[in-house]
Each structure stands twice: as C-alpha cells, then as structure tokens.
UniProtKB/TrEMBL annotation:
SUPFAM superfamilies: GAF domain-like (SSF55781). Residues 78-268 form the IclR-ED domain. Gene3D superfamilies: 3.30.450.40, Winged helix-like DNA-binding domain superfamily/Winged helix DNA-binding domain. One of its GO terms (biological process) is negative regulation of DNA-templated transcription. The keyword Transmembrane helix does not apply. It comes from Streptomyces sparsogenes DSM 40356. Keywords: Transcription, Transcription regulation. This is Putative transcriptional regulator. GO terms for molecular function: DNA binding; DNA-binding transcription factor activity. It comes from the Bacteria. The keyword Thylakoid does not apply.
Length: 268
C-alpha cells in the first residue's frame, strides 16, 4: 500500500507538472482526476500541505473575469526557494563529480558555468594533470555572446529573450570568429538548438575551441552548462566524442539536481 507521504509527494509532483506545462488554473478536482484519487481525501491532504507551506491558494483571473475570481492551487514559494537553494548546492557538489568524470574521459580541461546577466561565470573547474592553465577561471565573468558556454546557457531562451539579454551589450571582438551582433549570435544559437550542444570555434580567443552541453534543473530550465575547452587543433577533430561525453555527464547532473542520490557518480 502506498504511504501517505508517497501520496503527498505524488500530489506535489502533479501540481508542479501542471504548472510547468502552462496550466493557469488547477483545482483539487483536476488533481483528483489526474491521480485517480478520491477528491475529498485529496482535498484534506491539500489542506494539510497549505498549513505546512508546501502548497498555496491564489486568485485566478481568467481573461474578462470580474470580481470573485476562483482560487487556483500552486506550490508555495518557500518550496521553490528551498529547491533552488538545493539546486545551487548540488551544482557545485555533483557538478564537481561530473567534471572529474569528464576530465578522466577526455583528458581536457572542463568547466561548469552559469549565466549572470549578459555574462557567463565559471562556478567549478577541473583540469588534467600537467595542464598549463595559469590561475583559475572560477568567479570570472566573460561575455556570454562569445564565451565557451554562452550559447548552451541560452539554448532554451527564445529569440526575444536573447535579444533582451544583449540589449545593452557591445559585441566586442575577442577572437577571429566572434559574433558581430545579436542577429549573428542568433544564427549560431539556432545551430546549437538543433544539435543539442554548442560549439564555440575561436569566438572567445584565437585558437580556442569548446563544446558545451546545457544542464536543466527540476523545472526543466537551463541553469548551467558543462564544457570541454582546449586548443582548436586538438579538440576540433574530436567534436562528436567530446559532445557525447558532455551530454552524458550533463544528463547525470540533471538527474542529481532532480534529487536522485548518486546520480552523478559515474557514466551510464
């Protein structure tokens, strides 16, 4: 028999999935129907969840509706805040595990980056023994339009969102292939979306090449990118191999971010 805790988690997950799917109104009847549960029992469970601040009621205002708008169920903001805090922690811990695995497989320098404004920032890194890297990239911002993981981090954003990110950005040339402006960046981003990973070929600096895979959190949103970076002459011939490695470890990191223990311990 399913435990009451398990039933409660099923309700929260169903509520989260409806929110992610774009449903603007969710009632106890909707959830009972989806989960094949008795509505009265489910309603009592939801009342307890609201008391514990796992779920909340908020006004739903359909187009053209007047006063007395019905109430719709939603996950409580505290639950999101806790989940986001846990995601940030796991990005650094399980992310480091993923980077170690990537370095072992590729023999190249690997990084984990996030998007902050119109720049990318490295939050974790791992370099192979004998690396000639001077200093650390952790905490150092770089323009997202030409950074090693900028395209991967923006791969799920629509063109209007991308244009808004770069609305006040000057596209300064950093390498021979640096995008010249938003339209040029969007053309390259279209190829990234189609492939599922980004290739940055001498856009950040001459002779530098990288492959990056997006990492999505429990909401399905891109929150980070795993990247392999090195000399073009060495990495370009290995593009497909490096991309497969980055995508595989990105998938394991995503599973870890969604709460499955040990998910980033090793490749599938």
């Amino acid at each position: 028999m399913e435990s009451s805790v398990g039933k409660g988690l099923d309700v929260l997950m169903a509520l989260a999935h409806r929110t992610a799917a774009g449903h603007r109104h969710t009632s106890a009847t909707d959830l009972a129907r989806e989960l094949a549960r008795d509505r009265s029992q489910l309603s009592r469970g939801l009342a307890a969840m609201r008391e514990e601040e796992f779920a909340s009621h908020r006004a739903h205002h359909p187009a053209g509706a007047g006063g007395g708008a019905p109430r719709t169920l939603a996950l409580h903001w505290r639950l999101y805040a806790d989940a986001l805090e846990l995601t940030a922690h796991r990005l650094r811990t399980d992310g480091q595990t993923a980077l170690e695995g990537m370095v072992d497989e590729t023999g190249e320098s690997c990084y984990l980056g996030v998007l902050i404004g119109d720049a990318t920032v490295t939050i974790a890194e791992r370099v192979p023994q004998g690396s000639k890297q001077v200093g650390s990239w952790i905490g150092r911002p770089y323009p997202a339009y030409c950074s090693d993981c900028g395209q991967a981090l923006l791969s799920d954003a629509d063109d209007e969102e991308v244009a808004a990110v770069f609305a006040r950005t000057d596209f300064v040339r950093h390498g021979p292939n640096t995008p010249t402006g938003v339209d040029d960046f969007l053309r390259r981003l279209a190829a990234t979306r189609e492939r599922g990973y980004s290739i940055v070929d001498e856009e950040a600096e001459p002779g530098l090449y990288s492959v990056a895979a997006p990492v999505r959190d429990f909401r399905g949103e891109v929150v980070a990118a795993l990247q392999v970076v090195g000399p073009r002459v060495r990495l370009a011939p290995r593009t497909e191999e490096l991309a497969a490695t980055a995508l595989r470890w990105a998938g394991r990191l995503e599973t870890a971010l969604r709460g499955r223990a040990g998910a980033a311990e090793g490749p599938v």
